[in-house]
């Protein structure tokens, strides 16, 4: 019987193509919107999380400068010194390591190839704070670090552009005015929110200070926090220490900023998740509106097809069959709308992903849920018109003009 | 004489309630033998359609008994009557009542669909029924592409495709000119004779009633008289 009913429903949909299309438009838009919004929302959240986790978790980033939003006027706050790095590492409880950074930019040259990149000077502590495996070669030794030797680890982008697949370890490259031995090749970190993280040459900080910046300044410190400690406690201790070291007394503002990457991550993730929920809720409302649209048009259809229902009843359809026909018709319509909505959503997602710079994802769960909802909407909003059709009296229905 | 196919005893039908109440049938007694060709005549409002609706198991009497093939139809519920119609009855209406935007063949196949016949059987029986009314070459035309007479013949094909015991036709020629009407009557006569289908037909045209073997005259919700005709179609052929 269900087979028969399905045939009848599909025939009827085919016979009234334009009306069928208008009927399902609401569902198409609803399903399409829900799936697009949820998928893109999740992708955005994932992208943000990926970028944050590229920074490492349980890390405090310390930079000189006034807090955000305060005037840019006044003298530039001083950079940190190697002594500050030492002090934090020695005196603050809960700190696993402190990696200083001094940076410069230069053109790297190897045989005919050259490539502009940035140079990151640091100590072996950066490996403790933010592990970065090698694909080949070795890290520098403590002796090389102390002596400020011209040795370097190269990021994947630099390696690709200079060596084009050839072995880089042990080769000597030119960096600006100096020659430098490549001792290690860093693994790929990929695209972060802060540009290509693999476009970098990492060297001992002393080498960078001596050969490039010409001073002992440290522009940035990355502090690893022991997971047994609260980052906020460690942050407060560092703040006190740095204020003392920088002679900030009384009511004077901090002239440095400490960012807690985990806190940034939580905040951003929370925000994107909330946004996703709000937008999905709005889209879900449009699904319900779509359902009401189906009911509305099914009711019109029942009235319009009263005579048809009369014919069916007269030739021996039982009430249940008429009910089922209209119900199946409504469900078939809403499922059709659901499928079209899903397909359109995939298209929209494909088009928007490059614009939003988020990774493409296919989330089977939301697709299944959205489709199931469209089927349920067909049942719920199709039932009332279908029952009305089934309750018609054949004689009256046949006489209906 | 064998037991009649249809027996009505003291059938009354009251429409509406209270002040607007109207008694359309006031005690109808009828016996119809299997294989008969019956014309129901009478002035407008005399209860012909009401009687046909009850005979067609589309409606139930307010009081009285209506026996069809031994079933007390007045005791059956809606769905049970639907199953009786599906199994034993075929309908032809004055207004043709075909599904629009639907081919002649699909219209004819419709009752078979409710009987659960498979696609191949539906196609074969549907084409055979269309052939019987001379429209097999028009099987893929929709009602809008057919003339009135052709539409009524499609409706007849739909009524007989299930090989019913009884074909009920309420003013089947009411919307047709006399030439087309005669064609329909000849078709009904042929079905009655060769397929042994009992035909019950309402008409107010004596020319059409002349094709019947039995003519039942209604007046004011009662059977006025029943007349047997021995020379079917005489009025036209003379
Ligand atoms: N559904 C109905 N409700 C109220 N009155 C009706 C209904 N159907 C028919 N009638 C009345 O019953 C009487 C008989 O109707 P009907 O059997 O259709 O007459 P006929 O077919 O002989 O012209 C008429 O007076 C008609 O107005
Ligand atoms: Mg009438």
TrEMBL record, chain A:
Residues 20-240 form the MacB-like periplasmic core domain. It is a multi-pass membrane protein. GO terms for molecular function: transmembrane transporter activity. InterPro entries: ABC3_permease_C, MacB_PCD, Macrolide_Exporter_MacB. It is found in: Cell membrane. It comes from Sphingomonas liriopis. GO terms for cellular component: plasma membrane. The keyword DNA damage does not apply. This is ABC transporter permease. The chain crosses the membrane at residues 21-41, 278-302, 323-353, 365-384. Belongs to the ABC-4 integral membrane protein family. Residues 281-394 form the ABC3 transporter permease C-terminal domain. Keywords: Cell membrane, Membrane, Transmembrane, Transmembrane helix. The keyword Nucleus does not apply.
């Amino acid at each position: 019987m269900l087979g028969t009913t399905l045939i009848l429903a599909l025939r009827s949909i085919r016979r009234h193509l334009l009306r069928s299309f208008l009927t399902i438009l609401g569902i198409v838009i609803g399903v399409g919107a829900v799936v697009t919004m949820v998928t893109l929302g999740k992708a955005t959240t994932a992208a943000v999380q990926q970028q944050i986790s590229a920074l490492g978790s349980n890390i405090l980033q310390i930079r000189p400068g006034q807090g955000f939003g305060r005037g840019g006027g006044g003298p530039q706050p001083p950079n940190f010194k190697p002594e500050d790095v030492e002090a934090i590492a020695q005196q603050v409880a809960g700190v696993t390591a402190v990696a200083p950074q001094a940076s410069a930019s230069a053109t790297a040259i190897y045989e005919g190839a050259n490539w502009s990149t940035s140079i990151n000077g640091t100590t072996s502590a950066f490996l403790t704070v933010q592990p970065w495996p090698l694909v080949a070669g070795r890290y520098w030794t403590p002796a090389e670090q102390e002596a400020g030797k011209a040795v370097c680890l190269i990021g994947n982008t630099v390696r690709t552009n200079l060596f084009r697949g050839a072995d880089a370890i042990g080769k000597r490259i030119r960096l600006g005015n100096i020659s430098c031995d490549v001792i290690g090749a860093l693994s790929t970190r990929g695209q972060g929110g802060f540009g290509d993280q693999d476009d970098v040459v990492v060297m001992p900080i002393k080498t960078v200070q001596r050969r490039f910046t010409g001073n002992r300044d440290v522009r940035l410190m990355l502090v690893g926090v022991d997971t047994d400690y609260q980052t906020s406690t460690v942050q407060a201790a560092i703040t006190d220490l740095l204020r003392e070291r920088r002679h900030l007394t009384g009511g004077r503002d901090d002239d440095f900023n400490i960012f807690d990457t985990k806190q940034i991550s939580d905040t951003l993730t929370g925000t994107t998740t909330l946004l996703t929920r709000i937008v999905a809720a709005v889209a879900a409302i449009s699904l319900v509106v779509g359902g009401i649209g189906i009911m509305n048009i099914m009711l019109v259809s029942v009235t319009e097809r009263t005579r048809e229902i009369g014919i069916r009843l007269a030739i021996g359809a039982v009430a249940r069959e008429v009910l089922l026909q209209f119900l199946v018709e409504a469900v078939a319509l809403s499922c059709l709308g659901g499928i079209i909505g899903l397909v359109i959503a995939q298209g929209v997602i494909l088009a928007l992903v490059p614009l939003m710079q988020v990774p493409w994802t296919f989330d089977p769960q939301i697709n299944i849920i959205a489709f199931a909802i469209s089927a349920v909407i067909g049942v719920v909003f199709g039932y009332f018109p279908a029952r009305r059709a089934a309750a018609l009296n054949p004689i009256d229905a046949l006489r209906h003009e | 004489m064998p037991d009649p196919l249809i027996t009505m005893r003291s059938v009354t039908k009251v429409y509406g309630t209270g002040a607007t109440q109207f008694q359309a049938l006031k005690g109808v007694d009828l016996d119809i033998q299997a294989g008969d060709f019956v014309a129901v005549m009478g002035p407008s409002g005399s209860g012909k359609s009401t009687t046909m609706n009850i005979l067609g198991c589309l409606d139930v009497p307010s009081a009285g008994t209506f026996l069809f093939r031994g079933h007390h139809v007045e005791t059956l519920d809606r769905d049970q009557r639907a199953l009786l119609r599906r199994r034993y009855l075929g309908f032809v209406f004055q207004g043709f009542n075909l599904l629009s935007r639907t081919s002649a063949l699909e219209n004819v196949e419709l009752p078979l669909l409710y009987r659960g016949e498979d696609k191949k059987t539906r196609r074969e029986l549907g084409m055979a029924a269309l052939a019987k009314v001379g429209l097999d070459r028009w099987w893929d035309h929709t009602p809008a592409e057919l003339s009135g007479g052709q539409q009524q013949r499609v409706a007849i094909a739909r009524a007989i495709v299930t090989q019913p015991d009884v074909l009920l036709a309420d003013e089947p020629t009411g919307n047709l000119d006399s030439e087309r009407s005669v064609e329909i009557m000849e078709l009904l006569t042929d079905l009655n004779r060769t397929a042994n289908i009992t035909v019950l037909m309402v008409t107010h045209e004596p020319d059409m009633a002349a094709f019947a073997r039995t003519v039942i005259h209604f007046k004011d919700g009662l059977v006025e008289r029943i007349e047997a005709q021995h020379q079917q179609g005489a009025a036209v052929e003379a």
